[in-house]
Each structure stands twice: as C-alpha cells, then as structure tokens.
Design goal:
The structure holds two protein chains of two kinds. Chain A is mainly α. Chain A has nine helices and no strands. Chain B contains 17 helices and no strands. Classes of the chains: A mainly alpha, B mainly alpha. The interface between A and B is medium-sized, with 25 and 30 residues.
C-alpha cells in the first residue's frame, strides 16, 4: 500500500505548487488520522487522479472518512458527484476548483456531524485550497450557511438522498459565486 | 407556532393553485399574441411533461393542478425560442427531481420550477443562454445579458418593445397584473413581493457594479426600472417566492426570506457574469426557510420548545 501511495504521489508531486503541497499533506494527515485500513489506498488513488484533475484530494479525504465509517454508498455517491463536477468544470472553465471542493466534501459528509460546520480541520482545508483570502472567507461564510441547512436536515432525520440533492441544488444555486 | 383553534378560510390548496394558474393567463394571452408559436409550444411542452411525470411517479393519483402550475411557471422562465424538448425536459425535472425525489408533494424544500431552471442551466447552458430561435433579429437569454446590452434599454422598450428574453419578460405588465390579482384575492402574502421588489430597487441604486460589469454593461448600474422589469424579477416576486410550501410560516420570516432573495439577485446581476440570478436566489432563500422559521419561532415564542427537544 505504501508503495502504491508513493507511486501515485509522483505525478502529483510533479505538478506540485504550494497549494498542491498543502493539499497533499493534509490528505495524508487525514488518512493517517482516520486510522482505518484502506484509507491510505483511497488517498493514494486521489493523489494519482489529482495528477489529471486538480481538487481531487478533497474527495479523497471525504471518501476515505466515509469508508472508515462503513458508509460505502455515500462514498460512491461522492465519487459520482465528482464525475458530474468534472463535466461541469469542463463546461464552465477551470476556475471552480476552490468552490466545488467545499460542496463535494459537504455532499459526502454534509449530513455527518463533523463537517456540518467549519471546525478547525475544515478551516485548514479551506485556507489551504483557496487561492485568495477573500475566496476563503467567502467559502467559510458559505460553509456556515450550508452547514446550518444541513444540520436542520440531520436534526429532522432526513434521508441521505435528500441531503445529497440539497447539496447539489445549493451547489448549482451558488454557481455564480465561482466568478467572484 | 400559534396554537389552535384555527379558522379555515374555506379555500383549499387546489383552489390556490387554480388561481395561480389563472393569474398566468394574461401573460399567456399577451405573449401568445406576439409570439404565438413559441409561446404555445413552450407552455404546452413544459406543462404536459410536468403532468405526465407526476402521473407516472404518483402511479395513478396525480395532483394535476400542482404539476400544471409548476410546468407553466417553468415555461415562463425559459427563453422564447427554446426547443420544445428543452421545455419538456425542464417540466419533467421540475416534478421528478424538484418534487418527487425530495419526498413528494409538500415535502420539497426548493421551488420545483426554480430548481429545474438551475438544473437546466447546469446541464445545457448553451441552450438556455443562447436559444436556437431568432426573434425579431435578436437572440439572447434576457435583456440583462451583457452581450445583449450594447446600449441601454429604456423602461418603455422593456414594457412594449421587441426584445429578447424569457416568456415572462415579453409582457412584464401581464405578470404584474396577475400578481396583483393574487394579492387582491389573498392567495399570496403581499409582504413577499413588496419586500423583494423593494430590495431589488434599493440595491440597484446603492450597489456598485463589479469589475466584470464595468466593461460590458455599465448601464445596468443605478437603473432600478431596468432591474424591476427585466429578468425574472416580477415572476419571482409574485409566483416563485410566494409558493406556500417553500416559504416561511410567519409574516416576519417571509420578509427576511424575500430580502435575502432580493439581495442575492442583485449580487449575481452586478458582480458575476450571470445575467440573471432571480431563480438561483429563490433556491438560496428556500434553503434558509427552516432556519428562518426556527429562529423566529424561538425568538418570538421563548416558551415554545425547540423542535426535537420534547419528550
């Protein structure tokens, strides 16, 4: 597993800028912190895919966390969401990385307790992945609002499908903010 | 929440939907008189697809009034000259995803027509922003679109002139007439359109234009009449934000809700390349409804237990 991880990391490192390096480090940190078998593999896959598509480590973080909790279907849904996002990005241009990262993590973990509000880990993730301070602050505020909405859903025991659809709808509604 | 006993107005939700559909009649007639083929095609495709989807998903117990009104409102949000299949797809998405995927009738947190419009914009942006048909030599999503605005549009031109746009933009006075009829009949709460339109008007006067706007359409800044008449402003104010299922329970909450929608609409119009954010603003405001209701319920009735805290 370690070998696969390192092999996957090579192409990612080849395109490594400061943002990529921070994302890579955080993904590893999360993978190690979750302490479950298979998590590092997911992080490795994410890193490998990141060589092709920026922004993927966040998906790795989200899906590895979900797999560690045994919620395989949600993790798969998150990867499905990623595919949609890649298509949308191809349609909208390349400036949406910072934004879809937040929403995909929310889509994957939104109805879980930890990610409904921007805790210290979330703040780190955001600040590391956003090119400007203004975007990071906007995303933090946004995360607060969306987190509150998802908290309401969770409190009422809503189904995961409803949570995911809510995330997707909010993602589309807030799409214009990509161009801030 | 107030406690009972309650007085029943004698009007059912079906009656309200029928009145809402009837209030769209002036728009259908006026737009149909100017662009008959496009208007009829869009209205029929969207509403038929919405009704058929509802009938299929409810397995023989369709709620045709709701699906029909959803389809009609969505059709009013589509550009004239849209393909029939685009309108049909939108109608199907509105009912299929906007209503049924969220749990069915009265369980949808988002306005189905606005949700469908957002999905269509994401799925087929080129189709929605540059529809295939040519109308009077002009084709654009809305007069607010930067590419359409080499020169400023006067309020008179927006009211009566041939300009590109959605079905609702063809005859804004008809939308206003239908909306006023709904207020007169007490089908909708007057506070919602008043707050939304006031917010749009105020922010169009005070909000500075973004850097992206300056190079394309500086005439959009400081023009409240243009922002009120163009885009989906009037339709949103009277037909989308007033949906009883997706708006707050209390009058105070509805004012906050409409103000949020108005602020987001103007922010999108002046600070992003999107020509019109009215439908998206509806979705953002819809998402906050539960939070608004909870907050107001708690602050105005401290003795009331929070939901979920009871035995």
């Amino acid at each position: 597993m370690t070998g696969a991880l390192l092999a996957a990391a090579i192409p990612a490192l080849a395109r490594c800028g400061p943002e990529a390096a921070l994302g890579w480090a955080l993904a590893l940190l999360f993978g190690a912190a979750s302490g479950r078998r298979g998590t590092l593999g997911w992080v490795g896959i994410s890193l490998g895919a990141w060589a092709l598509v920026p922004g993927l480590p966040w998906m790795g973080v989200a899906s590895s966390g979900l797999l560690a909790r045994g919620r395989r279907s949600l993790a798969m849904a998150a990867w499905g969401g990623l595919a949609v996002t890649v298509l949308l990005r191809a349609e909208c241009g390349g400036s949406v990385v910072w934004f879809d990262a937040v929403f995909l993590v929310l889509a994957a973990r939104g109805i879980d307790e930890e990610m409904a509000r921007p805790g210290p880990q979330g703040v780190l993730l955001l600040l590391g992945s956003y090119p400007t301070a203004l975007q990071a602050l906007a995303a933090l505020a946004l995360w607060g609002v969306v987190g509150a909405v998802l908290e309401d859903l969770r409190d009422e025991g809503e189904a995961p499908l409803r949570g995911l659809l809510t995330c997707l709808t909010l993602y589309l509604a807030l799409l214009p903010l990509h161009y801030l | 929440m107030n406690h009972g006993p309650f007085l029943h107005s004698g009007r059912t939700s079906r009656d309200q939907l029928r009145w809402t559909g009837a209030a769209l009649l002036p728009l259908g007639v006026l737009a149909g008189a100017r662009f008959p083929a496009e208007t009829i095609g869009t209205l029929l495709s969207a509403s038929a697809a919405a009704c058929l989807t509802d009938a299929a998903l409810r397995r023989g117990r369709p709620h045709l009034e709701g699906a029909l009104v959803t389809g009609l409102i969505l059709a009013c949000m589509l550009p004239l000259g849209s393909s029939w299949w685009l309108a049909a797809l939108g109608g199907g998405l509105a009912v299929g995803i906007g209503k049924h995927a969220f749990g069915g009738r009265r369980r949808n947190p988002f306005n189905p027509a606005a949700l469908s419009r957002a999905f269509l914009m994401a799925l087929l942006p080129a189709r929605l922003l540059s529809p295939g048909g040519q109308l009077d030599g002009l084709t654009a999503a809305t007069p607010l679109a930067r590419e359409a605005g080499a020169t400023s549009l006067s309020p008179g031109a927006l009211l009566f002139g041939p300009h590109p746009g959605t079905l609702a933009e063809v005859a804004p006075l008809a939308v206003l007439l239908g909306g006023l009829l709904l207020i007169f009949l007490r089908v909708i709460d007057w506070r919602v359109p008043l707050t939304y339109l006031s917010t749009v008007c105020f922010l169009s006067l005070v909000l500075p234009g973004g850097a992206r706007l300056a190079g394309h359409a500086p005439w959009l800044v400081g023009q409240p009449a243009v922002h009120l008449l163009a885009g989906g402003t009037l339709l949103t104010a009277f037909f989308l934000l007033t949906d009883p299922v997706t708006s707050p329970l209390r009058p105070g909450g509805r004012i906050v809700f409409a103000a949020v929608a108005g602020a987001f609409t103007m922010f999108v119009r002046l600070h992003t390349p999107y020509p019109d954010g009215a439908a998206l603003a509806v979705l953002v405001a819809n998402a906050l409804v539960k939070r608004i209701d909870r907050t107001l319920l708690w602050t105005t009735s401290p003795s009331t237990a929070r939901p979920g805290s009871g035995p």
